[in-house]
Amino acid sequence: MHSNTLLEIASEYGSPVYVYDSEKMASQYKRLTNAFNKVKQVKINYAVKALSNISVLKLMNSLGSGLDTVSIQEVKLGLVAGFSPENIIYTPNGVSLEEIELAANLGVQINIDNLSILEQFGTKYPKTPVCIRINPHVMAGGNTNISVGHIDSKFGISIHQIPHILRIVENTHMTINGIHMHTGSDILDIDVFLYASEILFETAKNFKNLEFIDFGSGFKVPYKEGDIETNIEEFGKKLSKRFTAFCEEYGKELTLAFEPGKFLVSEAGYFLTKVNVVKQTTSTVFAQVDSGFNHLIRPMLYGSQHEIINISNPDGRERFYSVVGYICETDTFANNRRISEITEGDILAFKNAGAYCYSMASNYNSRYRPAEVLWLKGKPHLIRKRETFDDIIKNQIEITL
């Protein structure tokens, strides 16, 4: 999006504010489907946890996407957004049997990742087909917190426990209609992913009633100019060929499924903040903005880098700044970053703010969560109002002292 457009949005809706470009989401969706256009049946399930605004979900629905959900609340959001239950897969981790039963009663595809729940669910609901999440014991991902397929991970049923799964299936007479894995986020090495895929194919041979194989996601998106990203086109070519061959071997045309979140929405998002203070210390120049890790926690949580541009002075002389927030705790967005000269009142845009930014926001320091704006068909649309003081206190109950 152009700097002037973003400035107009900041002027109209105030700051801080999240802005999402629907055209970028659509082009990323198309890029992914094109990469796998040699496969007869492909299903993209957008990972709701990345950005769960109902208007964004409706946009995904209009593109032909399904949904990947991890909580009963996300399932309900999907239904409100107009998704049919059969286009929603529910993959929780460590939740109660009661929550899984609620999801099953809503008619969505259940994906189970532990033996205990598999046995309990299969005993109680043998006629409800389920998918199984396998842990392939493959380390992949850009950070230990987002690598979920390794041997010490809490996610999935170990490939070494396949005999246990088969015994439960045999005893309960339940139907396994899908096999799933997710190795981690920010995957760069396609060969590692393909190696994990081979483990999934090998596992799939144990189940005769499969309808789909879900390869998860975790594709790396670029976070700065020249940054490396997953070569989705090369990956699509290699996995499509192998998947088609497996379907022939299996004797049935299966659906190839993915559940991208960040890949579809990260680059579409901008987070706009206003510079309150430019503070010179003995060694640093701080640009202090009207936000903090209550709105964008990823740099503090994962050490992630978000490119920051001064859209009020995009062509100005570059100087070094540390961009920090207003939270009463260290909340550094960037250290000694080259940014066009900053003046108090300027608007800074954080790129790649579509995924895991608003969805991880909080009311820390009793601050309000920002508004969200969707750029659609050449116009900005407010899709979430900025919070007010009433939102901070609405669920609090005052007691008489």
From TrEMBL:
Question: Which pathway, per its entry?
Answer: Amino-acid biosynthesis; L-lysine biosynthesis via DAP pathway; L-lysine from DL-2,6-diaminopimelate: step 1/1
Active site feature: C328
The alphabetized UniProt keywords are: Amino-acid biosynthesis, Decarboxylase, Lyase, Lysine biosynthesis, Pyridoxal phosphate
Which molecular function GO terms apply here?
diaminopimelate decarboxylase activity; pyridoxal phosphate binding
> Which residues are pyridoxal 5'-phosphate-binding?
G218, Y356
Q: Residues bearing N6-(pyridoxal phosphate)lysine?
A: K49
E.C. no:
4.1.1.20
Q: Where is the Orn/DAP/Arg decarboxylase 2 N-terminal domain?
A: 26-266
InterPro entries listed in its UniProt record: Ala_racemase/Decarboxylase_C, DAP_deCOOHase_LysA, De-COase2_C, De-COase2_N, De-COase2_pyr-phos_BS, Orn/DAP/Arg_de-COase, PLP-binding_barrel
Q: How does it assemble?
A: Homodimer.
Write the protein's name.
Diaminopimelate decarboxylase
Q: Which source organism does the UniProt entry give?
A: Hanstruepera neustonica
